[in-house]
Structure formats: C-alpha cells, structure tokens
Specification:
heterodimer; B: 50% strand; globular
Chain lengths: 110, 115
C-alpha cells in the first residue's frame, strides 16, 4: 500500500524551541492533513491543506503543501509542554483514498 | 454533545476467536469509518459506511467485516483472530459522505490484544 514517510521519527526539544517535521510520498496527493494524537486518544485534526504551495497557520502551527504535491511540512513555533504527542501527516489521493504517515513523536522538556 | 464513542475500550482475545467492536457516531453524523492502528504506526483505513452501505474498503482480508445500523452506529467484526490483529481500532464519523478526511472526528479507540 501507499507509504507516507515522516521524519524525524522522534524529537526531544527544550520548551520554547521551534519544531519542524516533514512528510513525503511516492505519489501525488490532493489533500494533506496534519493530526496530533495523545496517549489513549484518537487523532485530532490540526491543519488541512488543499492545494499545492498552500501555506496555512493555526496558532503556533504552520503547515505547507509541497509544490510537487508529494510532500508537506509542519512547523511548531515556541513549543510548550502540552505540544507533547505524536504528529501524523495524512494524504488523500485522486482515488479518494486516505493514508497516514508513520508519525513523529515529540517530547518537550520544560 | 457526546463525541464518537467506542466500546469496549480494551479487549483481550485468544488466537482463532472472533471479536466485535462497536462505534456510536456523533449525533447527526451518518458516515462511519474504521481504522486499524498498530503500535508505532499511523492508522490504516479498513472500511467506510454511509447510510448503511459500504462505500470504501481498505486492503484487509475477508476476516474483517463491518456493518452500519439504522441509527448509524456501526460494528467491526474480525474472525479467526491472529496475533497481528493486535492494535488500536479507531472509528471516525462525519456528517455526510465526506470525501475529505478533515471532515471526520475520531473516537478514542478500542485496544485489542490477541494472545
């Protein structure tokens, strides 16, 4: 099946630092989404991107839809302890099929 | 308003057994999807149902089946359980037959352990 590769796999950062993670695909997607999942919970949508080149912000979060439509990145500015969790990218292809990435685990050290 | 509710929250089964997982969507939501999330990986799409009909199926064996009831709740059934079926099973609901994943709200999942 379709593989979405996320990097890095895990991050340990100091509170206040900025975070950057990305997601790449072997094929084109029409929509890119970023989710956060905390222990014992389902994924929660953070940002949705609908067209190539789009840059969208949600508070301290900023995400971009890559020009090639095969990648996306997520930045978190001025991290805080509650940013801890696993961040997943997800893409929807032309066949309306959905695929999730492998996840980036974020730990914020106070 | 209650969110997407799944039951049970945790379950332990032995190999070869059958399991039924249940999902109640957000009130007014008519579409339900099921995902399998193996530890350390992202969710993988299993099924999508809308108005009691299957509208999408992922790459899972026939041991996996599902149905949606008139009240839009849903069941996921897995027969002849294998150790590899151990995972968090997530249900997501949406108002309509959304073709956009952003339209879905996820439940907290059922943690299935097969021993």
């Amino acid at each position: 099946g379709q593989q979405l590769n996320q990097s890095p796999q895990s991050m340990f950062i100091q509170e206040g630092e900025d975070v950057s993670m990305n997601c790449t695909s072997s094929s084109i997607f029409n929509t890119w989404l970023w989710y956060k999942q905390e222990p014992g919970e389902g994924p929660v949508l953070l940002i949705a991107l609908y067209k190539a080149g789009e840059l969208t912000s949600n508070g301290r979060l900023t995400a971009q839809f890559g020009i090639t439509r095969k990648d996306s990145f997520l930045n978190i500015s001025a991290s805080i302890p509650s940013d801890v969790g696993i961040y997943f990218c997800a893409g929807q292809n032309t066949g309306n099929q959905f695929y999730f990435g492998t996840g980036t685990s974020l730990t914020v050290i106070p | 308003d209650a969110g997407v509710t799944q039951s049970p929250t945790h379950l332990i089964k032995t190999r070869g057994q059958h399991v039924t997982l249940r999902c109640s969507p957000i009130s007014g939501h008519k579409s339900v999807s099921w995902y399998q999330q193996v530890l350390g990986q992202g969710p993988q799409f299993i099924f999508q149902y809308y108005e009691k009909e299957e509208r999408g199926r992922g790459n899972f064996p026939d041991r996996f089946s599902a149905r949606q009831f008139p009240n839009y709740s849903s069941e996921l059934n897995v027969n002849a359980l294998l150790l590899g079926d151990s995972a968090l099973y997530l249900c997501a609901s949406s108002l309509a037959l959304s073709t956009q994943l952003y339209g879905y709200t996820f439940g907290s999942g059922t943690r299935l352990t097969v021993v």
